[in-house]
Amino acid sequence: MIKKLLILFTVIAGTLLSVHAQDIPEPMTPKRIVNDFTGLFSTQERAALEKKLVNFNNNSSTQIAVVTVPSLNGHDINDYAARLGEKWGIGQKGKDNGIVILIKPKSGREKGEVAISVGYGLEGVVPDVTASRIIRNEIIPAFQADNYYKGIDKATDVLIDLSKGEYTADEYKKKNEGSPFDIVIGFIVFVIILSLIFRKRGGGGYSPGHTSGRGGFFIFPMGGGSSGGFGGFSSGGGSFGGFGGGAGMDMNDIFSMFGDIFGGHGGFGGGFGGFGGNAQPQQYQGRDLRVQAKLTLEEAYAGCTKKFKIRKDVPCSSCHGTGCESGSQPETCPTCHGTGYTVRTVRSMFGTMQTQAACPTCGGEGHIIKNKCKACGGDGIVTGEEVVEINIPAGVDDGMVVTVPGKGGAGKHNGVNGDLQVIVRVEKSENFERKDKDLYYNLVLDFSTAVLGGEVEIPTLEGKTTIKIEPGTQPGKQVRLRGKGMPAIQGYGYGKGDIIVNITVYIPKTLNKEEKELVKKFKECENFQADKATKKSLFDSIKNLFNK
Q1: Which of 140, 142, 383, 423 is the most buried (most CB within 10 A)?
Q2: Considering the domain boundaries, does residue 342 fall inside one?
Q3: How many domains does the chain have?
Q4: What is the dihedral of CA 263, 265, 267, 272, to 10 degrees?
Q5: What is the dihedral sign for C-alpha 101, 102, 108, 109?
Q6: In this structure, how many other beta carbons lie within 10 angstroms of the beta carbon of residue 508?
Q7: Do 309 and 227 fall within a single domain?
């Protein structure tokens, strides 16, 4: 019954609020399974997820893609996830065996949302209700504890086991049953459908979370998981194909993107809302901070250490971060009795249902402060300074962001520290032009060396080296010095790039009388005249040089 209601809801909602192709981002280049557009995961976490999901893809052909986006552009998350799977071509064409886990982190006053969308080929393996249970049981509790990687890691483990047949959806249901969640969802979907119908009759527009038109029904914001019936993923132009493991990934994505993603509190308000049965008192999360680190190319090559004096929120020394005046302690909230949430009982045609919400008295903390510290006003934090030493890994490029967990602002009431995000700025080099791991060096030869050959000294990032110039070297020729370029960042590729020497020949603009006579003699020599094939070869070499 629930599944039919969900499908009906999708058809109606899809008509009223469709996701346009331009609203969906392009996948990162080169393509990978974990596309973290918001910096939700750390470098190590992204690498671990990528490795696990790539191995599963290579061994089973089933693709599980994890995507984080900063905004849904006003669209329903379930429809957005399905459209993204279609556009990107998650799963094998013809088999529709793709799964998309889509996360929109909390931003400002907007709640975070998460959805699981499954291709037609896996509908029987991971039905809608099972996807919802995975979100409720595996993802949301971890997200509420600000452990986003743990939630996705556990969810992908369950999806992998289901896809491999380790256990069935029914077995997973029995393992996690005991909640009226499915009844709640059925009721919500029923109300949504009625609301949409009456809104359509009344001429009102579709606006999630708000009433309009004559119907008078409230549309509940839904950010939970869904699967099946939302379109097979194969129509997006085929699968990602193979994936390259951890090597060869886009270096701009190995570190977190910067921005205040999570607002002031911890906690994740997504999914089907509420805190669930495992709700815990909330902790405040401190602000993420940003600094810029200017590096020379040599420092980027070898890695370096930078020190910063950072002005930020620090724990109040007077109350030691508690927010209480000396001699007093936080008191248990009389409304929620320390749980951080309140329970509301609602009677409906489906029976009695209970919902949980953050306690309005304590804001979800579980305690209140009556005697506030005068130094910090009860927040437990004051403005201070800290000298932070940051290790910049070898191989970084301009625009990358190194995230240092826990070095941001302190959270109120001894909450969780924010992160420090170091934006790398690599200064332009006088000698080299960088392209990924390769370095390009422009060598200008004199005419005689180009004709007769010889040895020329060129710079590298480890000192000077000598290269051999073959007799008759033409303009546009390239000499590649293997392993002399930039190193791969540890965990994201192997070895070093190359130094590519672009050779051109210097032609003087002015000549004295004696020099002109010498050149005239060269002109009379047949060996100094290029034939048609040589001209074409020289032209192609120069053209390719400018196309690099």
Answers
A1: 140
A2: no
A3: 3
A4: -60
A5: negative
A6: 9
A7: no
CA 410/CA 520 separation, integer angstroms: 78
Residue 245 lies in a domain: yes
Give the pLDDT band of residue 534 (cuts 50, 70, 90): low
**Which tokens is 320 given?**
């030691």
Provide the token pair at 129. Answer: 């209700």
Give the bridge partners for 384, in sequence order: 312
Residue in 64, 94, 101 with CA at minimum distance from that of residue 80: 101
Q: Say if residues 325 and 367 touch (Cβ distance below 8 Å).
A: no
Q: Using an 8 Å Cβ cutoff, are 99 and 160 in contact?
A: no
Q: In this structure, how many other beta carbons lie within 10 angstroms of the beta carbon of residue 258?
A: 16
Q: Are residues 106 and 9 in the same domain?
A: yes
pLDDT one-digit tens code per residue, 224-278:
334 322 223 322 223 333 333 322 223 233 333 222 222 222 222 222 222 233 4
Question: Which residue reads 């869904």 in tokens?
Answer: 226
Residues 412/323, Cβ–Cβ less than 8 Å? yes
The answer to whether 213 and 198 are in contact (CB under 8 A) is: yes
Look up residue 42 and give its two tokens.
């750390």
CA distance 46 to 242: 18
Give the three-class secondary structure for 432. Answer: coil
Parallel, antiparallel, or unpaired: how do β-strands 478-481 and 381-392 relate?
Answer: unpaired
Q: Tell me, what's the pLDDT at 233?
A: 30
C-alpha to C-alpha distance for 220 and 111, rounded to whole angstroms: 13
Q: Are 465 and 480 in contact (CB under 8 A)?
A: no
Q: Is there a contact between 388 and 381 (Cβ–Cβ < 8 Å)?
A: no
What's the chain's Rg over C-alpha atoms? 31
Is the per-residue pLDDT at 5 higher than 80?
no
Q: Which domain holds residue 309?
A: 289-330+369-426
Token pair of 31 as six digits: 């393509």
Of 190, 219, 249, which residue is a domain's last?
A: 249
pTM to 2 decimals?
0.48
Same domain? For 399 and 513 the reply is: no
Helical H runs in 65-180?
A: 77-88, 128-134, 140-144, 148-164, 169-175
| Helix H or strand E encompassing 456 | strand 454-460
Band (pLDDT 50/70/90 cuts) for residue 212 is very low
- Tell me which residue of 25, 496, 45 sits closest to 254, measured CA to CA: 45
499-505 and 478-481: which strand pairing?
antiparallel
pLDDT at 72: 85
CA distance 501 to 481: 8
3-class DSSP assignment, residue 403? strand
